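Bug #77: duplicate submission created two jobs. Keeping one. Sequence:
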Amino acid sequence: MISSTLRLVPVTPDNFDAVCAVRVHPRQEHLVSPVQKSLAEAYVHGDTAWPRALVEGDEVVGFVMAFLDIVWNPAKDPEHRRSGLWRLNIAAGHQGKGYGSFAVAAVLEELRRRGAGQAYVTWDTGEGTPEPFYAGLGFRRTGELSGDQPVGVLDLA
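Kept job's structure:
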């Protein structure tokens, strides 16, 4: 059962070290970049990145980052913008408790609040792919690839 103290909070100097200490299960390391890379990406994409610590009580149990209103394929359509889930890291010892679903739901709520009609996500297709997790939340493949990763979409309306 998810506690009523579970929440997303900004990454700050006070929780930075705990956020950086989040490690997914070793079987998943090939599927998701470490938090440190995400925070570096958030720094260089400050206008479009929305990084958050997932906190239960006083403990950081995960990390999630959304992308906000990015130009999806500038060469094809410089006006077409998308928002969605960029990164999700749940600490190995805290997986299987509903924290990932909570984090995604919180991101989707933020995207709705900002007026997005759809949310996008990409995933690695290697062993242990998170595709079933995202499909279970309602994301469906678009038929597109971002690099070598399938793109999923979820209608927010």
